[in-house]
Amino acid sequence: xxxxxxxxxxxxxxxxxDLHCSRLSSFYRATLYAIRGDTGTFRCDLTWQKIRLHx
Length: 55
Description:
2 helices
């Protein structure tokens, strides 16, 4: 049986929004996460903290 990941597009989008990223940035980065499994390193506008989501 294949391992099913619960961390998909919706999880990534909610996680980025919880980190105070804009809707547009969260949408784009969640799409990258769903396709590639990695958002790359970037900074949010509000907090200026480095963020990277990867599997």
